[in-house]
Amino acid sequence: MNIVLTEIKENIAVVTIDNPPVNALSHVVRSGVSDAIQELCKDTSVKAIILICVGRTFCAGADISEFGKPPLSPSLSNLMAKMDQINKPLIAAIHGTALGGGFELALGCHYRIMIEGAKVGLPEVNLGLIPGAGGTQRLPRLIGVAAALEMITSGKPISARKAFEVGVVDRICDNNLLVSATKFAKDIIGKPFIKTSELELLASPEIFEEFSKKILKRTRGFLAPNIAISAVRAATEKSFVEGVKFEQECFEKLMKSPESLAQRHLFFAERLATKVPDIGKDTSIRKIEKIAIVGGGTMGCGIAISFLTNSIPVLVLEQSAKTALLAKSNIEEIINTLFVKGRLSENQKNFTTENLTISTEYSDLSLSDLVIEAVFEDMEIKKQVFQKIQKFAKQDVVMASNTSFLDLDEIASTTSKPQDVIGLHFFSPAYIMPLLEIIRTKHTSTDVLAAALKLGKLIGKKTVVSGVCTGFIANRMSSCYGREAGLLLLEGADPEQIDNVLYKFGMPMGMFSMLDIAGIDIGVLARKNIPTESFDERAFRIHEALVASGSKGQKTNAGFYCYNGKEKTLNPEVEALTQKYAEEYGIKRRKITPKEIEERCLFSLINEGFKIVEEGIAIRASDVDVVYTSAFGFPRYKGGPLHYAEHLGLDYILKRINKFAKVHGNRWWTPSSLLVSLVRENK
Ligand code: T1G
Question: What's the structural domain count of the chain?
Answer without folding.
Answer: 3
